[in-house]
Amino acid sequence: MPRLYGTGHFTEDPYSQVVSPHGIPVDDLVAVLQKEIRRSRIDNAVLAAYEMFTTSADVAQHLWRRLQVIAEHADWVVAKVALGEALVEVPDYARCVHTRAGQELGRGLMQWRDNGVAVRDELPGADHRYREELIEIHRRDEAENGTAPRLSMLNPEDPLVVADDL
C-alpha cells in the first residue's frame, strides 16, 4: 500500500534525477542545505547552495524557494502585507556601503563592519575567523583607497555577485 503522508518516492522528485556540475544529486544538496543550516554548519550549507546555484536556472530558483521557506514565516508575511498590517522598515544601520543611501552618506566597509554585521544573541565561542580576516582586508583597503566602492573589483559574470555587491 502506498504511503498517504510525507515525502513521495524519489522517482516522483524531479531533483532526484538531476546532478550538479560536480556530480552530486540535487535532492542530496537540498537535504544538505536544510540540515546544515539547522546545525549551524554554515560552510557546508553555503557550498551546497553554491552547487545548487551553479547547476541550472531551475535548480537555482528551487534554492531560493527553499531559502525562503527556511528563513521566513512566508505565509504570515504574505497575509500581513496583503492586509496592510505590516511593511518593512529601513533602519539607519541598514544604510551601509551596500546601498545608495549609505554610499551617499559616505559609509564604507568599516562602518558596515561596526554596525551591519551585528549578530544578536550570538553563541559564546562563535567562530569569527572569516569575519576577522575580511575585516582586516577591508581595513587595509579603506586606508589605501577610501570608502567608495570600486566596480572594477567585481566580475559581473561571477554568479555570487549580487545587487548588494554593486
Question: What's the quick description here?
Answer:
The protein is an all-alpha fold. It contains 7 helices and no strands.
Explain what the structure shows.
The protein has helices at residues 26-38, 42-53, 57-71, 74-82, 100-104, 109-116, 129-145. By secondary structure, the chain is an all-alpha fold. It folds into 2 domains: 10-75, no CATH class; 92-165, no CATH class. α1 packs antiparallel against α2 (42-53). The chain starts with 25 loop residues before the first helix and ends in a 21-residue tail after the last helix. Mean pLDDT is 80; it is low at 161-166.
Brief descriptors of the model:
mainly alpha; globular; 166 residues; single chain; disordered C terminus
Question: What is this structure's SSE topology?
Answer:
Layout: H1 26-38, H2 42-53, H3 57-71, H4 74-82, H5 100-104, H6 109-116, H7 129-145
Residue windows where pLDDT falls under 50 for at least 5 positions:
161-166
What percent of the residues sit in helical stretches (DSSP H or I)?
Answer: 40-55%
Number of extended strands: 0
Radius of gyration: 20 Å
Number of domains: 2
**Which of globular, elongated, flat, extended, rod-shaped describes the shape?**
globular
Please work out how many helical segments DSSP would assign: 7
Give the H and E element order.
HHHHHHH
- What is the average per-residue confidence, as pLDDT, rounded to a whole number? 80
Structural class: mainly alpha
End-to-end span in angstroms? Answer: 54 Å
What's the main sheet like? none
Q: What share of the residues does DSSP label as strand, in percent?
A: under 5%
